[in-house]
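Marked as duplicate of an earlier ticket. Keeping the data here for the record.
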Amino acid sequence: MSGTFHTRRRFGALCLGAAALAATPSLAAPQLLRRISALEAVDWRDHFTTLANDAILCDLTNRVMHYWGEDGFYRIYPTAVPMSDEFARRGRTQIVLKRARPEWAPTPNMLARNPDLPRYVGPGPDNPLGVRALNLSWQYYVIHGTNDIRKIGRQSSNGCIGLFNEQIVEVFDRARVGTPVLLI
C-alpha cells in the first residue's frame, strides 16, 4: 500500500470522527477521538474477496466500523457495540433491508430482561434506532443511528451496532441491500 493512499484513508477517518465528535457533548468524546485517530487503516482484502457491493467490517473490540466503497471510499466510524459477549454475534452477514425513519419494537429477549420497555416507538427523536436502520440477515441485528449519543464508543447495545445519526445517514446512502458485513 502506498504511503499516500494510507495517509488519505487515515485522514478521511480522522476528519469524519472529529466532525461528529465535535458536536458531541459527552465527556468521553476526547478519549474516543484519540482512540479512533490512533487506529491504523485496515486493508479490506484481509476480510473480503471483493468490494463489488461495498463492504462493512464491525470491530467489536475497538468499537469501530470500517466502510469500504468499490469507488475507493473509506471511513472508520465510532460505534456502540453489544454490552456483553452474551449479546454479541460474530461472523458474516449482509444488509437485507434499508429503513429510513425506522420504527422500533423491543425484541422478546429485551422484554424478558425489562418488561417496562415500551412495546413500540415510531419514527422521531425518541426512537432508539435513530434516523436510519440497516437490517442484517440475522434476526434482530441492525446497524442504526441512535437517540442517545452517550452510547457511541461504549459497550451499550443489546446486540446492534449503533452510529451517530449523521454517520448512519452517510452509510445508509452508500450501502445497498446485499452489502456484505463482517462482525469480528
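See parent ticket for discussion. The chain is about 25% helix and 25% strand.
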